[in-house]
Amino acid sequence: MKHTIMVVDDEPNVVDMLVIRLRDAGFQVFAVQDAATALSKARSESPSLILLDLMSPRTRGLEICRELQNDVATRYIPVIIVTARAEEIDKIIGLELGADDYITKPFNPRELILRINRSLRRTDEKPPDGEKMVIGDLVLDQARHEVRVKNRLVGLTATEFKLLALLIERRGRVQRRDSLLINVWGYENITHTRTVDTNMVRLREKLGPLGTYIETIRGVGYRITDGKLASA
């Protein structure tokens, strides 16, 4: 079954190029230009991945990203931000809002397709049926793709879920930032260590009081404990 890519971009030339390149790469593709259509289409069509231009005005694209991540029907769809802004702060904000990856314009179409395939491989990885991981009052249910804190359901993105699962699986052991980038994000070039930190901040916030289970090892990385030795 072919993966379906939704392109959200208001530049006709860019959209035409992306549609051609993505179809040549074996994807099904559809494109939308305005925010309202993008959100409704994401809910109704459930694409495999979304390419999201930050568009103009700039904040509207970020609002779309935020709404996609807050909606239970779309939060597990990976989003790759496509933007002409290369400033570090813009990339960090995009990641904080739940984007799976980002790429700046102008971009190499081959690189974009590689990034799309990398995100889709992570999403397609299926955990063993029925496997639950429990640490203190935190329960991660692989089969249901659910996380509960003191029996309260917590909404995580696909990347956040995989990050938490890896930490629990390797509980008590320090996970270096570069190792997390490889195992969770699939990065081969270790250049975006802030990606780990921004996602970790967001994950802790969503876990509420149990966010203290995630311990920062300064200058090295992170580990998860039962909360007795952890510090925010």
Structure report:
The structure is a single chain. The chain has 232 residues and is of the alpha/beta class. Helices cover 42% and strands 21% of the residues. A five-stranded parallel beta sheet has the order 2-1-3-4-5, with helices on both faces. The protein is globular, with a radius of gyration of 18 Å. It has helices at 12-24, 35-45, 59-70, 88-96, 109-124, 158-169, 177-185, 193-207, and strands at residues 4-8, 28-32, 49-53, 79-83, 101-104, 132-135, 138-141, 146-149, 152-154, 175-176, 214-217, 221-224.
Sheet with the most strands, sense and barrel status: 5 strands, parallel
The class by helix and strand makeup works out as alpha/beta
Sum up the overall morphology in one term: globular
Order of helices and strands: EHEHEHEHEHEEEEHEHHEE
Strand content: 15-25%
Mean pLDDT: 82
Q: How many DSSP helices?
A: 8
Number of strands: 12
User: In oligomeric terms, what are we looking at?
Assistant: single chain
Radius of gyration: 18 Å
User: What percentage of residues falls in helices of 4 or more residues?
Assistant: 40-55%
Main-sheet strand order equals: 2-1-3-4-5
Low-confidence stretches: 228-232
Q: What separation lies between the terminal Cα atoms? A: 43 Å
